[in-house]
Design goal:
Blueprint: H1 3-7, H2 18-29, H3 34-54, H4 58-83, H5 92-114, H6 118-140, H7 153-173, H8 178-207
Helix pairs in contact: 2-4, 3-4, 3-5, 4-5, 4-7, 5-6, 6-8, 7-8
Length: about 210
């Protein structure tokens, strides 16, 4: 893997885990393509969004949380199959980025509608997409892509997963939606902060002699 390729790859600790290495190696030996795995992440996000939107049953919230994590597993394995598995394609960068933006939007917008504040879900989705735009823009001007920030993708999805689990308990006990409101607000605020910090880092890097 070249330096440019490494610089554009999100650092993920679980990439070195035994299960991820074994699963990606097995997938690489099959007819599964990394681009197909990337598209599968949209399916899991869609299932999660449907579970969030279509029912307030506590089990549905747990199912949505599982869907969020399966989406992340796809995001992990597609890159491993592409690079470690030797199945990289020229269109890979498109499949690596576009499905992520769709999956983020499906889940975050659904959470906003489910908690009664649709605008908050749309705001969270917009700011999440903007964090990615700033990162990719940095790469387009010759800098290493910046995956830092308090609400990068893995942290957004971790907060959403925790919020869905909390909402499951809240639905069972109180039949209210405060957990999802708080979750959406935290993701939106954290994404805004991430946009600011990444932009500051980008500007400083470009101005550095």
């Amino acid at each position: 893997m070249g330096e440019e390729e490494a610089a554009s790859r999100r650092p993920i600790a679980s990439r070195s885990s035994r299960w991820a290495i074994g699963m990606s190696a097995w997938l690489a030996r099959t007819g599964v393509t990394p681009n197909g795995i990337s598209l599968l992440s949209i399916l899991f996000a869609g299932i999660g969004a449907a579970l969030i939107l279509l029912t307030t049953h506590p089990i549905a919230m747990i199912g949505a949380a599982i869907s969020v994590q399966l989406r992340l597993v796809c995001n992990l394995l597609d890159g491993m199959v592409a690079i470690e598995g030797g199945k990289k394609t020229r269109s890979g960068p498109i499949y690596n980025e576009f499905p992520d933006r769709i999956a983020d939007s499906l889940l975050l917008v659904a959470a906003g509608y489910a908690c009664g504040f649709a605008w908050l879900g749309w705001l969270a989705a917009l700011l999440a997409a903007l964090t990615a735009y700033i990162r990719v823009f940095g790469g387009s001007v010759g800098l290493a892509q910046d995956f830092s920030g308090i609400m990068a993708k893995q942290r957004r999805m971790a907060v959403l997963t925790a919020g869905l689990v909390a909402q499951s308990v809240e639905t069972l006990v109180f039949a209210s939606h405060r957990s999802l409101i708080l979750t959406s607000a935290i993701i939106a605020a954290g994404s805004l902060v991430t946009c600011v910090t990444r932009t500051i880092t980008l500007v400083r890097s470009l101005e550095r002699p």
